[in-house]
Amino acid sequence: MVDVVLYLEGERHGDHRLLRGIKNRFGATDELGVFVLDDDGMREETAPGRAFLDETTLAVPGNVLTVTCEGSRPLAVEVQALVAPTRFGLPRHSASGFDLSRLHLLAAVLEKRARILLGQADVFVNAVGGVRLAEPAADLAVTLAVAAAARELCPPPGSVVIGELGLGGEVRQVRRLEQRLLEARQLGFRTAIIPARQAGCGLAAGMRCLPVGHLGEALALLDEPSLQPRPARAS
Q1: Is 128 helix (H, G, I), strand (E, B) or coil?
Q2: Domain residue spans in the chain?
Q3: pLDDT tens-digit series, residues 116-137
Q4: What are the φ/ψ torsions at residue 77 (nearest 5 degrees)?
Q5: How far apart are the first and last CA of the chain?
Q6: Which of 82, 187, 215, 225 is most exposed, with the fewest beta carbons within 10 Å of its own?
Q7: DSSP letter, residue 146
Q8: Residue 109 and residue 30: Cα distance in Å, rounded?
Q9: Model confidence at 142, in pLDDT bands (50, 70, 90)?
Q10: How deeply is 86 buried, as exposed, middle or buried, from its count of CB atoms within 10 A (0-12, 13-18, 19+)?
């Protein structure tokens, strides 16, 4: 008999480690512990919401912020995507921290529903910090990251992207959206792209929400000039 099974995960050369319960006779298994490695060993991360957040990289085309829920803890995660012309006959798709078969599905939705052609491109997706994005609520963020990388565009500055994506391109509801938005607001973000059916959640969280019901509406936000970051002026 085994009472508890714990996995200690994380990037080999990174500072953070994630403690995940796989089996637990005495409690829940969907909670996540975030720890930092230092000279004295492993200590608890006091601000887990900012553990994997680097705001300076969010202005790069293909980088999108989402908020995932690990157990009762919302966690801000940066999703990075890179789309490059393939050098070989067969395009390559690669994912780190995200299910590869799900990436294939989302790429197919982009091609079919949004006419973003990826058949001659290599597509790479990475969840920063060794986090594993396993829930569907990250679908819209991953899809927008790939689309933004392909078009060399950025999501609205200071925004988070949350939503599940269906095969028809529809943006579906996600659980605990208000809690995710509250976490994003505490981290200093004020804009959120969310499912249209949950637009009211932004009022309670004090966020400016951009509700979208279809993938095309979300992609239109990438093309909106007023929402794009302004280039720095030459001194």
Answers
A1: helix
A2: 4-46, 50-227
A3: 999 999 999 999 877 889 899 9
A4: -130, 135
A5: 68
A6: 225
A7: H
A8: 29
A9: very high
A10: middle
